[in-house]
Give the backbone structure.
Amino acid sequence: MNATFSAVPHLIGSVEMYAYDRLKKFVYEIFVKIGCPANHAETAADVLTAADLRGVDSHGVSRLGSYVRLWEIGRINGTPDIRIVHETPGTACLDGDRGLGLVVAPAAMELAVEKAKKVGTGWVAVRNSNHFGIAGYHAMLALKNDMIGIAMCNTSPLVAPTFSTEKLLGTNPIAIAIPAGNQPPFVADFATTPVAYGKIEMHMQRGEDIPPGWMQDAGGRPTTDAHTGKKGGALLPLGGDRVHGSHKGYCLSASVDILSAVLPGAGYGPWAPPFLGYLPLPEDSVGDGIGHFCGAISIDAFRPVAEFKSHMDNWISRFRRAKPVEGQPKVLIPGDPEREMAAKRHAGGIPVSEPVVKDLQRLSEKFNIEF
């Protein structure tokens, strides 16, 4: 490694540390190389590295190679014509023209915010896009306008509905960002499965088993084999099994699939296109690409902003004072772990695992960008 990322990258086991700004610059340069205009490359790099910064390593630079491979096979368009195909004062449907979801989703949220400024709320559904990174990034775009942001996305079918052995749904994340006053914002960002598939890939890379409740094998039996997805197994919905509420996770995932894909006309259920470029598109596909659903809700459409923020501060403060169980230092508010991690990684650098470092090195050689 040289100074392109940090002056003296230091090894911690099989993990190397990189300065956030240098890492983001490298990602930006890769997106430029695949044809993205500068403003799109900047947005895409910001979304991707925000995941690493906030500790969501499964959705950060580890995914960069996958985006490049999708571009190589023509499934990602570096210069999309993102356009409105249907619109009312408070809603719109966008066609992402096969653009990076990292770029299309922020455009959708920006449109939702503009509509909310005029009529109180704005809702934008998207078709013909691609994976959009961490949902929380897009939801948080509404915060600076004193709005509640909501973002969700359907994803590749890796999840079996409760009582099924077929993979019909994605990990289908949901994020909700709510502004506060003196307290930091409430930011809930979660998959509708026990974990995102990227975390299972990280277990595979390390040669580790996965915890019970994450996946089932091809016959629908519980398993701790991280490689079971390659053997016909499937991720489980949030809850793990019926006894622990997997039917509720199934309902959440299905709701995301319908709002993000069926509503705008994207590929839904088993017809959602795979994120891995080496996998073929589903036969008899329905809809176009991956879909998103973004919403912005203006606080002052319901009550004065200052009044609401005061009560949000009170809500957050009371939950912070909740008595923790023995052995736990405190009760967390959604968004706390990511904020704490971002501060830590801004100061000390972002850890990148050895397999990801090797993948980034391959990209640097492929595009002749110093790494």
Q: What stands out?
A: The first helix runs from residue 20 to 33. Confidence is low (pLDDT under 50) at residues 1-13. Residues 83-194+236-301 form a domain with the Ribosomal Protein S8; Chain: A, domain 1 fold (CATH 3.30.1370.60). The first strand starts at residue 11 and ends at 12.
